[in-house]
Amino acid sequence: MCRIFVVALSLSWVAMAAVQIEKVSYQGWPNCYRISNGEVEVIITSDIGPRIMRYAFTGGQNVFKEFPEGLGKSGEPAWQPRGGHRIWFAPEDRVLTYAPDNGPVHISVKGGVLEATEPTEPLTGLEKQIAVKMAASGTGVEVLHRIRNTNNHAMELAPWALSMMAQGGVGIHGFPPRGTHPEVLAPTNPLVMWAFSDLSDKRWQFTKKYLILRQDPDNHGQPQKLGTFNAHTWAAYLLGTDLFIKQFEADPKGTYPDRGCSFETFTSADFLEQETLGPLTKLAPGKSVQHTERWTLHHGIHIREWTDAELDRVLLPLVASGSERGKGE
Asked: Which domain, by its residues, includes 240?
C-alpha cells in the first residue's frame, strides 16, 4: 500500500467528536483529504474528481480499485478510469456521461462533513458534488451525491454512484424478498441484461435470494453486467476477509433508468463495479438532485459456502446493522 504523507497539519485538522479531517498527499496527488475516526479512513482528492480514492480500515487494504497508470495525474483531455468511487448521471451516453473529471475540485468542511465540488462541466453544464460524513465510531460512512443543473434548459437524468472495487473479490447483491407460487403471483423485480451479458459466464452465480459476481483478473473475455431493482438496495464486496457493504433506499414509485434499475454490477479483468442509481428526474435550470449511500466495512468475514443459508447467516445481520445505523444518524 502506498504510504500516506501528512502535510500542513496545523491548517487542516477538523474534529467532530472522534472524526479528524486532515490534508494529505496520496498516490502522487498533493492535495488530498483523509477522513478518519481511528478505525476506518476515507481519502478524497481535490486534484481531480470528485473521486473518493480510498476506503479502508486504518492502514489496511483499500477495497477500491486504483489504476496505477492514472494515479497522481491530472489535466488529461479525456475521461480516465483511475479507480475509486465517483458520481455520473444515467442513462449512459457515450459522450456526455464521460465528461472529463480531471481538474481540481473545491473542498469545504462544514460541521464535520467534507464536500468536494467540481466546477461546472463545460460539456454537460452540470455541477457534481460528493459529500462525506463519517460516524464518530465504527465504520459507517454516509456519502451524498449531488448534481446541479446550471444550463438554461431542463435535463432528464438520474444520479448514478459507481464504486470500482479492487481485483480478486466477490460481489453480492440481495434480491427483494422472495416468495412462493401460487401465493405470490406478481413480479417483484426486473433482471436487466446488456447485449454483452452472458448468463453462462462462470463469473456469475445465482441463488434464490442472491446475485453473485466474481472478479477474476485472469478472465479477459467479454465484460459482464446485469441490473435489477430493490426498494432496499444493497450490495456487498468480499475482498479477502474484508467485507464492504453499501446500501440506499430506492423509491418504488419512481421511474428508474435502464429498464428500471436501482442497482447494476459490472466486471472486467481489471475491476468489479457496484453501482446504485436514483430515479429519473426532470431537472430544471438551477435545481439539484441528490442520492445518498451508506457504507460500512467489516473484517474477519468468512463465507464457507455460497448458499442462501450461509449468505443469510453472514450478511443479513450486517446489512440490518448498517441500515439501522443510517436511520439513526
From this structure: 87-328
